[in-house]
Amino acid sequence: MSELSGLQIFKYLPAAKKAEHTNCKECGCPTCMAFGLKLAKHQVEIEKCPYAPKELIDLYNQNSIEPQKTVEICGVKVGGENVLFRHEKTFINRTAISVVIDTSKDDWKEKLDKVLNFEIKRVNEILKIDFVILKNYSGTLPNRTILYEDFLKLPLIKIENNDFKLVSQNLIKMREKAILEKDEKYSDPVYVYFKHTDDLDTLCAEASYYICKYANMLVFEDFDENLISVLLTLRQNIFTDPQKPLQVEPKLYEFNNPDENSIIFMTTNFALTYFAVANELESLSVPSYLLVVPSDGMSVLTAWSAEKFTTKIVAKTIEKFGLRDKVKTRKIIIPGLLAHMKEEMEEEIKDYKIIVGTINAYEISDFVKNLN
Ligand code: SF4
């Protein structure tokens, strides 16, 4: 059962039935339609309309039940999802990633330090293990740790990762039961527990699948930096809000102290594109500029096809950031995916020579070496 829309609610209200009290405003809204729209967004209480039929009240209350509970562990929220697919609205809480450390083992202190200090930086965000579960531990708990006994008391559903097909089927079934049927038996967040294995490749593939569908948390006995880096990266990509594209500020960025003769790159303001290019420019042996064109946070080809990256927008951006005054260079390197825009761009921005750059950011270094 999905959320009720404003229109679905409206059908039950007096205005839709041309009945008495139509648009009476007693609810504080100018019309029944306005009330229906607000109610769908939970911005008004259903009791505000004294003429809402019992059928609507029952349906609304049933739909308003949170399909999946949220559990907080060491300050990290787990669960609380209310859609099956990210594009329906958004996913709420990222799949938490945790490691179990048994303090009866000799090397537990080193392992704990390694896990707690592990971090990677990606798209301007520091990604870490969310928390550590300490087995056989007594004493003061370090930050981001929880006792195993306390963890077991949390309202969570555990699935052992011993049969990929079965686990994946169960995860899907449980999420569907929770979201579509609001079945209370499946309203607790679900985690998958991974016992020690030497086959980290398979573990990585399976864990990646569970991040996509539909584990609220993964708990590992193993800690491997490469494995966790892959999973944190994937998780960061999946748990973006489709209603808010990841974007950076459009402007002229500088790398390695450029001067008026430095090379100029250009791209869109989609954050993933920006950081992929920026990372490469930072590591170049030559200074450079990166002109980031406003494109509603869309990637290069998407922005072009949505007409958010046009020659006119580029020309305006050059103007806006005073590129001509700041940099003498009259060559701009555009993304390889926009090679077809070269002539059109040279026509629009007559004083600049347009150079077609690389399709992939990792090719930039070789491209620059061969530039002259
Ligand atoms: Fe319509 Fe009910 Fe609001 Fe009156 S109180 S305008 S009937 S929604």
Brief characterization of the structure:
It contains 14 helices and 15 strands.
Q: Which percent band covers the strand fraction?
A: 15-25%
Question: What is the global morphology?
Answer: flat
Number of domains: 3
CATH superfamily of the largest domain: Dihydropteroate synthase-like
* Quaternary form: single chain
- Tally of DSSP β-strands: 15
Number of helices: 14
User: Unreliable runs, pLDDT <50, ≥5 residues?
Assistant: none
So, CATH architecture of the largest domain?
Alpha-Beta Barrel
Mean model confidence by pLDDT: 94
Strand order of the largest sheet: 7-6-3-10-9-8
Which molecules are bound in this entry? iron/sulfur cluster
Fraction of residues in H or I helices: 25-40%
Element pattern in H and E:
HHHEEEHEEEEHEHEHEHEEHEHHHEHEH
* Rg: 27 Å
| CATH class assignment of the largest domain | Alpha Beta
Span of the ends, CA to CA = 62 Å
Q: What composes the largest sheet?
A: 6 strands, parallel
- The name CATH uses for the topology of the largest domain is TIM Barrel
Structural class comes to: alpha/beta
Structure description:
- This protein has 372 residues and is of the alpha/beta class.
- 35% of the residues lie in helices and 18% in strands.
- It starts with 5 loop residues before the first helix and ends with a helix.
- It binds iron/sulfur cluster.
- Iron/sulfur cluster is lined by residues 13-15, 21, 23-27, 29, 32, 35, 49, 51.
